[in-house]
Amino acid sequence: MRQHRLHTVLIAAMAVAVIGAAALPTAQADIFTWVDAAGKVNISNLDPPAGARVTSVTHLNPPKVTPPSDAQREALREQEVQALADRVRQLQDEVEYARHQPPQRVVEYRVAPPPPMMPFGGDWSAPPSYFGTRQPAPEFMSYSQLRTYIDQLKTSGFDVIAQQVALERKASFPFVTLIMTLIAVPFAVTAGRRGAMYGIGVGIVIAITYWVAFSVFAALGTGGVVAPMLAAWAPNLLFGAGAAYLLLTVRT
């Protein structure tokens, strides 16, 4: 009988404890990390003493977030719908703007041809000429461009004798027409009785001789036999001296 009563009391106590635990709110425990006056770091779930410097607080049981109400959900949904509508309107404006723009110019890029390869066996590497740098031709450069190019080659340590001859020839070549005119005057005076064909033949011979002399001296200058300036101006000096002699000795 006594055991039956004890069992009944235990059951009632357990029921009261369960009901009380369910009725109480959920406890929230915080872990404090603090430094005391001696500089010692302490970690505890109890509140730090007065005057301690708290460095961090960890919430083990954060408070529950209250779910949004129906009005808040409706407001959020309307905001999302409005943002989506604004984005669709922006895309439509961009499409309309792009439709009225002129077509862009298409730039074509040409791919360099591959290096020549041997069809069957042998060495499949490209020749050294494929990797060479193409040098600009002095004939297609202006006087200032060629002079700048010569300065760049000198700075790099290259031989510039041929380019210097070409530079001096650009300065001396315009005087060829003046000297040829001075040479033609004495022949025009003395060859008047022999006919026009004689004058044309003499002019062709003089022009060919002039051009041969110009080429020969240019080759000598390029080979380093004579100075570049002398190689470019020697034909003009020779034929200019001949023209002066003919003008002074011609019979009028």
Describe the overall structure.
Helix 3 packs antiparallel against helix 4 (161-172), helix 4 (161-172) runs parallel beside helix 7 (228-249) and helix 5 runs parallel beside helix 7. Strands 2-1-3 form a 3-stranded antiparallel sheet, with no helix packed on it. The protein contains 7 helices and 3 strands; from the N terminus they run H-E-E-E-H-H-H-H-H-H. With 252 residues, it is mainly alpha-helical. It is 57% helix and 7% strand. Among the domains are: 29-59, no CATH class; 157-249, no CATH class.
Break the fold down into its secondary structure elements and pairings.
Elements: H1 2-23, E1 30-35, E2 41-44, E3 53-59, H2 70-99, H3 143-156, H4 161-172, H5 175-190, H6 196-222, H7 228-249
Antiparallel strand pairs: 1-2, 1-3
State the strand order across the main sheet: 2-1-3
Count, helices: 7
What's the overall geometry?
Answer: elongated
Overall radius of gyration? 52 Å
Task: Tell me how many strands there are.
Answer: 3
The percent of residues in helical segments reads 55-70%
Unreliable spans are 1-7, 15-27
The helix/strand order is HEEEHHHHHH
- The helix-and-strand class reads mainly alpha
Percent of residues in beta strands?
5-15%
Q: Look at the structure and give the mean pLDDT.
A: 76
Compute the separation of the termini in Å. 172 Å
Biggest pleated sheet: 3 strands, antiparallel
